[in-house]
Amino acid sequence: MSGWFEAQIVHTGRTPLFCFFVAFVTGFGFIRLSARLIRAKVRWWPGNVVAGTVHIHHMVFGVVFMTVGGIAELAAPLGSLDWRAGSAGLFGLGTALVLDEFALILHLRDVYWSNEGRLSIDAVFVAVGVTALLLLGITPVGVKSVSDYRRLLPGTPGAVATLHLAVAALFLLASVTLLKGKIWTGLFGLFVPPLFIVGAIRLARPGSPWARWRYRGRPAKLARADRREQHLRQPVIRAKIWVQDKLTGPHDLPAAAAQPAAVPGKTPAGPERPAVGAESRPPGAGP
Question: Which H helix or E strand runs over 50?
Answer without folding.
Answer: strand 50-51
